[in-house]
Amino acid sequence: MAKRFTGDQAVDLRFIRSDAEIDDPATIYLTNYESVREPKVDVTKWQASGLDEVSVLRGYGSKTYQEFLPMFEPVEFKFVYTATPSPNRLKELIHYAA
Hints:
The protein is an alpha/beta fold. The protein is built from 3 helices and 4 strands; from the N terminus they run E-E-H-E-H-E-H. The longest helix has 9 residues, at about 65-70. The protein is globular and about 45 Å long.
């Protein structure tokens, strides 16, 4: 990552597994679903979040969807990303929007 984020585009980007690793508000932190679910990372401290491979939220009844919906409520900016082909059913799009 260091090669891509240098010079005028310099960004401090770090992977973390717990809140204890957060020490700079100017840093962009990355983590995984497990660290959020366990919860080793408290998302209420975030201003923005982006969830990659969001197909794990596809089903309303899924454990991840049920846990993440209230957990991310206080986060002001929420983005979801997926490359998983979808039939674009209205229900799935509503789940992603939530």
